[in-house]
Specification:
By secondary structure, the chain is of the alpha/beta class. It has ten helices and ten strands. The radius of gyration is 17 Å and the shape is globular.
Length: about 240
């Protein structure tokens, strides 16, 4: 059984569907990239999985449990982590407080120590307010917050947006590392080529539907995918 199975997913923010019958599968320990042009429904799909899309149809199964109708906070308790593209930290709180307020954590002190070892830059700035952090440091804090509960699945919505090229590379290394530790990753990303390069499977959306899917390497080598959806190699 797959860790995450999305079946015939529909939905949107109003009566108009943005998602039009999407099927996606994520197995444990995999990185699965969702790519596509602007407006294809990538971030909408992320919100549907974590419980933040107002209207959803179809099925979203986590280890066989249907998440439709399950509120976002309970999905988190079931093992779904989420790093949104914006508003991903509590700016008035310190780095340490951002981690301490995460609910449902066993051995909170020990887990924070583990994450500070994983993100040493955060350990150095543990007493700094999150609003004073650089873009890269904020992203690290958002990652750390999502990992506090040791989730089985992490949904990342455009994690490299607005980052410098050096930080983009660092971000992709960190994402690949999550899968290496057994955490499944559903990666929503505009930098499709770089995302697919660290992924097992890729899905390319177009107008709320899956236009292409397959092993990530095969999609990178697919001329149709490259010409229609991935852009030039140097663009990412």
């Amino acid at each position: 059984m797959s860790l995450l199975s999305i079946e015939a997913l529909t939905g949107g923010y109003s009566e108009v569907d943005i998602l039009n019958g999407i099927d996606v599968i994520v197995d444990a320990g995999q990185v699965v990239t969702i790519a596509g042009t602007n407006g294809a429904g990538k971030s909408t799909l992320a919100k549907a999985v974590v419980g933040l899309l107002p209207r959803v149809g179809g099925r979203i199964l986590l280890d066989g449990t249907d998440l439709l109708g399950v509120p976002a906070e309970k999905r988190a308790a079931l093992g779904v982590g989420y790093v949104p593209q914006v508003a991903n930290v509590f700016a008035p709180l310190t780095v340490l407080e951002n981690l301490e307020v995460v609910e449902g954590v066993k051995d909170r002190k020990g887990r924070i120590a583990e994450l500070f070892a994983l993100f040493p830059a955060l350990a150095e700035r543990r007493k700094a307010r999150a609003g004073s952090l650089s873009g890269g440091e904020r992203q690290q804090l958002a990652f750390a917050r999502a990992l506090m509960t040791r989730p089985r699945l992490v949904v990342l919505d455009e994690p490299t947006a607005a980052l410098s090229p050096v930080l983009v590379e660092e971000s992709f290394r960190r994402i690949a590392g999550l899968a290496g530790e057994g955490t499944a990753v559903l990666l929503i990303e505009q930098r499709a080529r770089q995302a697919l390069a660290i992924s097992d499977i890729g899905y390319i959306l177009d107008i709320g539907k899956v236009a292409l899917t397959g092993p990530a390497r095969a999609l990178l080598d697919d001329e149709r995918a490259a010409s229609l959806y991935l852009g030039q190699a140097h663009a990412d």
